[in-house]
Amino acid sequence: MLVIDGSKGEGGGQIMRTALALSVILGKPVRLFNIRMNRPRPGLKPQHLESVRALATISGARVEGLHLHSTELTFIPRRAQCGRYRFGVSTAGSITLMVQAIFPVLALCGGYSLVELEGGTDVPFSPLLDYMGLVFLPIMENLGVRARLRLIRRGHYPEGGGRAVLEVWGVNRLRPIRAEYFGSLLRIEGRSHCTNLPSHVASRQVKGACGVLEKLGAPCEVEEEVSRGAGRGSGIVVRAVSTTGRILGADSLGRPGRRAEVVGREAGRKLKRYVELDCGVDPHMGDMLIPYMALAEGKSVITTCHLTGHMEANLWLVQEMTRVVFQVQGREPVRIKVL
């Protein structure tokens, strides 16, 4: 049984999600301790509990220590099964972090799965739902995995209440990814949304983002979505597409007292920097790609704009669990290669 110290690196929930997904895929039981020990309130929160339950359900795993605020967990998986599932949290626990947890398992399941998810679609400290649909899933297709993430209802913090449906056409093997350079910018697009707020909030977020991004000299076309849902909130996701099909993404979440133009400018400035650094993938994507790079057949290599705490933790953990060795070179941008 592999024993994993959850306080390594940034010491958050990412270590748990990656460790359990790899446990299922590799068929290796794991024991985690010091779970989320570097957070103000250590241990499992409702959204972490549901991610563990989801992976346990998909793989028929036996789990010990699965309760609120638990800092230790033993996870003994059996074999993952494609199928139809439903998972959710009554709080605004992040749907996108649940997707992060289960996607590697479903991607390598060899068949079709449909998962109904409930919780927060657009909440702090996690990618916005549109980021997963506009950036993560298209890049996963380069690895050979086709998937779709459909929004049913927005859910913001603190009410939650959002709903989405994930469909995955799993494969038996992943293709390697080579994303060393972004290349020549073709266009900028994205989605700006507001829920239970005046429609001008979405428009002003677009104005803020495109005001920054138009300096890159490419068309900036960001659609606006105005909806009713659970709670009030807004956010924007923008992506840059190159002439060779590379995608870089950035997002920004609205909050009370924060002007919509500022929300848009934040996303625009991040994306502009990624394009100017000629990164192969953005930092969010660089973090999420680490396990897939280790699992793919062949040698993967990416460049991303800088090394984040999440990336460092994932690099350490994935090397510990898979014995794949990564080479990390440079700072801005940073090159990550499977040796």
Question: Layout of SSEs?
Answer:
Blueprint: E1 2-5, H1 13-26, E2 30-33, H2 46-59, E3 62-64, E4 73-76, E5 84-88, H3 95-107, E6 112-119, H4 129-142, E7 146-153, E8 162-169, E9 178-179, E10 185-195, H5 200-213, E11 220-227, E12 233-242, E13 247-253, H6 260-276, H7 283-295, E14 301-304, H8 309-322, E15 326-330, E16 334-338
Parallel strand pairs: 1-2, 5-6, 9-14, 10-11
Antiparallel strand pairs: 2-4, 3-4, 6-8, 7-8, 10-12, 12-13, 14-16, 15-16
In short:
By secondary structure, this protein is of the alpha/beta class. Helix content is 33%, strand content 28%.
Keywords:
globular, Dihydrodipicolinate Reductase, domain 2, 4-stranded mixed β-sheet, 16 strands, Translation Initiation Factor IF3, alpha/beta, 339 residues
